[in-house]
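Journal club prep — side note

Before the paper discussion, L.F. wants everyone to see what a predicted structure for a comparable chain looks like in token form. Sequence:
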Amino acid sequence: MKERVSLLALGALLLGACMNGQNIEVEGRVKYVGSTPHHYLALEDTKQHLFKISNPQAFGVDKLQNHKIKAKVQLIKEAVGPGFPAVVKIISIEKE
């Protein structure tokens, strides 16, 4: 019985560690990607990597289309491949 409880506690600890995203800084241009109705707001860095913004209303980012910004973001989901960009949550922003 103790083994099951410790195994469940270890599983919960690992799940919590996986849910914590890593914080990174991204500098690039804000743009809409895709066509209606499947468009989304993204941040494109200088190396042409896309980061899909999960909270576009935060900090008024949805109104900064075509502006260059520097943002501190939390990585929610890594990029899978072409057409499936990394998903990030904006923590703080600096408009350039």
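L.F.'s comment for the group: The chain has one domain: 22-95. Keep this in mind when we get to the figures.
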